[in-house]
Amino acid sequence: MAAMSLTLPVLPETSVPPAEGAPQPLPGILDVPTDTLRAWLAERRQPPMRISQIRKQILANRATAFEDMSDLPKDLRPELAGSFSVFSTKVEKHMFAMSDDTHKLVLRLADDKMIECVLIQEDGRATACVSTQVGCGMGCVFCASGLNGVVRNLTVGEIVEQLVRLRNLTNPTSTNPDRAPRLTHIVVMGMGEPLANLDRLLEALAVAGDKHGLCVGQRHVTISTVGLPAKIRQLADVGKQYHLAVSLHAPTDALRTQIVPTNDKTGIPAILEAADYFYEKTGRQVTYEYVVLGGTNDDPTHAKELARLLAGRKAHVNLIPWNDVEGLPYRRPVEGNLQGMIETLHRSGISVKVRKRKGAEIDAACGQLRRQLEGSGERGEGRAKIGEPIT
Ligand code: SF4
Q1: Catalytic center residues
Q2: Is 193 in the pocket of ligand 1 (CB under 6 A)?
Q3: Which helix (H) or strand (E) holds 263?
Q4: Above pLDDT 70, what percent of the chain?
């Protein structure tokens, strides 16, 4: 078997404390720094190339156990299994929507927190939607993920593991033109504000893009944000071709602050300026996401204000009709209002799409399932308040 490229990014050291009373979990090998792994191997008289072999086995060959890594020496495999785990996460729940081949995983992390990730398969694409934080500090009023604030940032390995686990659900021998045999796209739209964990996200995406690993190209990656202007500029400056999606949800600061509370710290003009900068630097059109909440942000005035706001910008708008969530007071927009928004935006020369609802039968909306599984006992425990930054 060919050795894996040695140019894979170094994964940073992280310290995730185990839950109280729980046995110390073995560190997930994707989060073990290269230097540490190299030293561990040297103690066993093994060459550094084993690192590449191990990573290639997980990222490219779909190995889920060290004993299956047939290109490693036989006596090394149990030693690895005694010191590390292939995955630091465990699948707490796996849901599958037969109607559209959507998978949702709830993953239990080493510290017993839970996150969600989703695989959407259609039109020859296999798209992974991944989380970047446990909980979220942005507090969008319609979102189950943000109801209790943010707990912590995910590690690089935890982000990569979501991608690997979802990729492992694709069929590598698929000849169905609608079903890709591997991961083709990544959307960073799960739990958390991706730009609040930008450095680790970028490292994880570098792993995802490696041609000896998951092999997902930069132009097939979309990073979604509520709009942190300084971080949007930082992302623009890294010189990658990732696509940026800004969750706008309202055309005025007054209404947006009601829907996205952190807007009172930034304001729409600063976000749009940063998005314009992103476009200038990368040449990539920015998408504006707009969750259409019936009776809240969907009347003809809102549509006109939105069209005015984006006029003259190279922008695309995704309208996302609200899905009902138990315990939240918002409702689906009536068809007439949705249609009116589409027509108003079209008349202003703005490209617009209505995003389809995927995996409805498995409750795929952000954060709902995790909250159900966590139950009331854990809610709010150890969390930063909504809007508070964390590291
Ligand atoms: S919609 Fe996204 S940014 Fe807003 S609270 Fe939910 S996870 Fe956070």
Answers
A1: 116, 366
A2: yes
A3: helix 263-266
A4: 85
